[in-house]
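1st attempt posting a full record on here, be nice pls
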Amino acid sequence: MRALYLDIGNTALKWRYYADGHVCQGDAVHRRDWSCLQQIEAIDWHALDRIEVASVAGREADPVLAAAIVSLGQVQPRFYYSCASDAGVVNAYREPQRLGVDRWLAVIEAWHRYGAAIIVDCGSALTLDAVTVDGKHLGGYIVPGLAMLERSLIQGTGSVRVDAAAIEDSLLPGCSTSEGVKNGIMRMTVAFITDAVVALRQGLPDTAPVLLTGGDAARVARVLPIATELAPDLVLDGLERVTAN
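the predicted structure (as tokens):
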């Protein structure tokens, strides 16, 4: 069996490829330009038996992405969407399909690994979700991610410019405009995560882990004052789990 799993984020994608008992995976930037798929040399598109996709690029993008995939190897991809319940987890949303599939899959995978958990996805948007020990999704939060916050500040001001080439992540007051922006945005993010985790833990066991995933997860983890675990492949693992049959 040769299978490909695709986690399509807002600007980047992650992939996992199984071929004859071997597995390899990686990531790429797409920005809704699906020609990036052609550049993944590890994948033999013509040998694939199945392709499973979780995408937050938008339902209108799914047919375009599907056509691009089919053109590479003729295999029709299957898109997985959020639903009311799956794999033992119950969706908190009144309209379950509106929950981002990346959040939904991360919650499912986290619950199967740990039971109760808090999941923080540090991507283009920063999302935070929680799940109880009996598999009830408690809902979550969505705020701008680090890069989005920085762009909004720069676009909304006349003189703020950021040169981030040599700036390390810190919560200390900045001694330049660039440091002030970078450190201030990080402090906002850390304060939000810490406050939300403290509130959510009131309804969860003390042992419930805080899992960090997404492109900026490692950066945020280094300065968070609470114990966390990096889980970079939660969405891919969740996609593989729910499409196993």
